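Mods, move this if it's the wrong board.
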Amino acid sequence: MGGAAKLPGMEAISFTPLYMQRVWGGRELERVYGRELPDAAPYGEAWEIVDRDKEQSVVSRGPLAGKSLHELWTSSREEIFGAGLPDSARFPILIKILDARDDLSIQVHPPAALAPELGGEPKTEMWYIAAADPGAKLYVGLKNGQTRADFEAALSDGTVADSVHAIEPKAGDSIFIPSGRLHAIGAGFLIHEIQQNSDTTYRVFDWNRMGLDGKPRDLHVEESMKSIDFNDFEPAMDEPQGTTLASCEYFQVNRRILAEGVAVVPAVPGRFAIFSVVSGNLKTASGATFGPGSFLLMPKDGSGLKTDGATELLEVTLPA
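Not the wrong board. Structure tokens:
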């Protein structure tokens, strides 16, 4: 770890997305961001930054092309990402774009204290609303007064949606989703999701829907009931103070609004940043341009990245 020799290509690093078919997905990644999807199926997720055993981000261009995020994290951690970072086997942040053309399941992620007992991984995340259809709803937390017994009764009679709090956010809004918070993304959203490196989701209700294979999707009612925070009533979309959209022990997300021709470097000196382009463009020293929906990893001492026109970014990093 640490990389004894100076690595080449210490400008911003881009990765090849991994596309995931989902029964609730669509083609917005193609329509909005100009992505070339693998086939005509509905795609609900683009995994932009991931270091997992079966899913791996691979550098798409430049001198580091072909190297995986896992290789960079394990062999050149201090040189690329900075000092004093977690001694984790894998890069600890996972970033996705979600295209919800239908409602996702009502679900929960297990809290850290319960995850080992349930055989899963805790997952705290945040959502940035990149686009929202008129009237599109997020389902987050419980309606006021709903008890555990009320929720169990709703499960039995198929009325779970009546127990969950609904919000109608607009593009540019964001919300923090800690482990244990009941939630679902409704139809009509394009969302940037920043989360712990975890892939444990317990579905408690799936609208009586069939999966892509024509069979009912698995539910995890027992695990969900153990994981849900039954004191989490009617949370609102976040109201960020300053430029910070979310800050917790697992990640920090800032919004940066920059003018034309501004050099883009990590806000925390000596610490990497992942830049997500909300609007405008970024241009590297080698002349590559990255527009909305692009994700770039800027090494701690990286340089040469500038805005090409007025640009809005999300900046994701690990807390200092």
